[in-house]
Amino acid sequence: MQKISEGPVTILAIESSCDETSCAISRDGVILSNIIAGQAVHEQYGGVVPELASRAHMQNIVPVVDAAMKKAGCTMDQLSAIAFTQSPGLIGSLLVGSQFAKSLAMALDIPLLAVHHMQAHVLANLIPGSANPVADPAPLPSFPFLCLTVSGGHTQIVVCHSPLRLEVIGETLDDAAGEAFDKSAKLLGLPYPGGPLIDKHAKEGDASRFSFPEPQIPGLNFSFSGLKTAILYFLQEQRAKDPEFVEKNLSDICASIQGRIISILLNKLKKAARTTGIKDLCIAGGVSANSGLRQAFRETGESLGWRTFIPAFQYCTDNAAMIAITAHYKYLAGDFAPLSVSASARAEW
Ligand code: KG4
Ligand code: ZN
Predict the structure, then answer these.
(1) Is 86 left (phi over 0), alpha (psi -120 to 50) or beta?
(2) Which end of the chain has the lower number of beta carbons within 10 A, N or C?
(3) Residue whose CA is closest, atom 13 of ligand 1?
(4) Tell me, what's the pLDDT at 136?
(5) How high is the pLDDT of residue 41?
(6) pTM score, two decimals?
(7) Average predicted confidence (pLDDT) for the chain
(8) pLDDT on residue 42
(9) What's the 42 CA to ligand 2 centre distance in angstroms?
C-alpha cells in the first residue's frame, strides 16, 4: 500500500514529451521550481530528430531533477507523489520520463500520476500568480472557461468544465498552428523552431503588406495546410521575379504570415465564445508565447467583454510546472496511475 501524505501535497513532475527535459516541484498547487533543459542538437537538422531527443533526455533527466529539487529546497522524503507526461508525444522521449517517474515512485513507495500533455497546457492557466507571484495576485479563470491551445503538434478549442473534465469542441484537420509557423519559417530559410523568429521579425513589419487566404472551414475546426501552400506559391513567384525578395521583405512577410495565423485562430475563438456564451477565455501552448497573438487576444477580449488569461511566458512552451499543477488536481481527486501504466505517442481524451 502506497503512502498517501496527510500534510502538504508536494509533487515532483517530469515533462519529456518532445525536445525539452523539464522537472518542476509544486507544493499545494504552488510552483516552487521549474527547470527546463532545451536540446540544441536538433537545430542543424531543421526539426526534432526523435532518437536524438530520447538520448538527450537520458543525459538531462538526472541533472534536471536534481536542480529542481535543490531550487525548491525539497528533500525526497517530503515528496507526496511523482507525476509524468504520459501522452501524447514522441514515444522514445515519453519513455525516458515515464520510466524515471515510475522508478522513483516505486523506490519512494509513493503514488504515481499520469498526465495528458494537452490537458496540462490548458491547466497552465490555473498556476496561481503565474505572471508575478508577489506583485500580481491575478484572478484565475472561472469554470467553465474556453481555452485555445496552440502548440507544435496540436490546435484545439477546449471547454474546461473543471480541472479534470475537458471537452474538445474544435481542432485542426491538418497542420497545427505551431507547424504553420515552423513550416513558413522553413520556406523563408529560417532555422527550426521558426515560430519565435517569425515573431521577432514580425515586430518590425507591416502585416497588411501581403495578403494570404483565410480557409473557410465549417464549425470550430481549423486548417493550416492551404495557408502553407499559398505561402509556398507566393514565395516561388516572387523569388522568380527577384531572387532577393525574401531578404528585402522579411519583416513584412513575417508580419503578414503571423497576422493571418492569428486571425484564423481568433476568428474561430470568437465563434466558440459566441456559440457557448462563455466569457472567461484562455490561450495556452507554445504559440501562446507569440507576442502578436497575446496582444490580439487581449484586444479582442477587451472589445467583446471577455476576461482573458494567458499563462506566464515560461508556462506557455513545454514545461513541467503545467504537469505539476494538473497532477495536483489529480492527486486531490485520488486519480493515481498503476506502475503498469505505459506511455503513449497518441492518445485521445
Ligand atoms: O507547446 P510547445 O512548446 O510544444 C508542443 O507541445 O508542441 O510548442 C512548440 C511550438 C513550436 O511550433 C514553436 O515554433 C511555437 O510553439 N512557438 C512559437 C513561439 N514560441 C514557440 N510560435 C510563434 N511565436 C512564438 N513566440
Ligand atoms: Zn506542448
Answers:
(1) alpha
(2) N
(3) 195
(4) 54
(5) 86
(6) 0.94
(7) 95
(8) 85
(9) 17
Q: Is 290 in the pocket of ligand 1 (CB under 6 A)?
A: yes
Query: Which residues lie across from 159 on neighbouring strands?
Result: 146, 167
Kindly give the number of the ligand 1 atom that is closest to the alpha carbon of 200: 26
Does any ligand 1 atom lie closer than 6 A to the CB of residue 286?
Answer: yes
Residue 220 parent element (H or E) = none
Contacts for 146 with CB less than 8 Å, ≥ 6 apart: 157, 158, 159, 160, 269, 272, 273, 276, 278, 280, 281, 282
Tell me the CA–centroid distance for residue 242 and ligand 2, in Å: 38
Q: Is residue 107 classed exposed, middle or buried when 0-12, 13-18 and 19+ CB atoms within 10 A define those classes?
A: exposed
The answer to whether residue 1 scores a pLDDT higher than 70 is: no
Closest listed residue to residue 24, CA positions, set 321, 345, 227, 338: 321
Give distance in angstroms: CA of 244 to centre of ligand 2.
Answer: 35
Q: Is the CB of 152 under 6 A from ligand 1?
A: yes
Ligand 1 centroid from CA 317, angstroms: 6
- For residue 9, the one-letter residue type is V
CB 98 within 8 A of CB 83: no
Q: Would you say the CB of residue 178 lies under 6 angstroms from ligand 1? A: yes
pLDDT tens per residue across span 290-333: 999 999 999 999 999 999 999 999 999 999 999 999 999 999 99
Residue with CA at minimum distance from ligand 1 atom 24: 290
Q: Is 223 helix (H, G, I), strand (E, B) or coil?
A: coil
Nearest ligand by distance to the CA of 254: 1
Nearest-atom index, ligand 1, CA of 193: 14
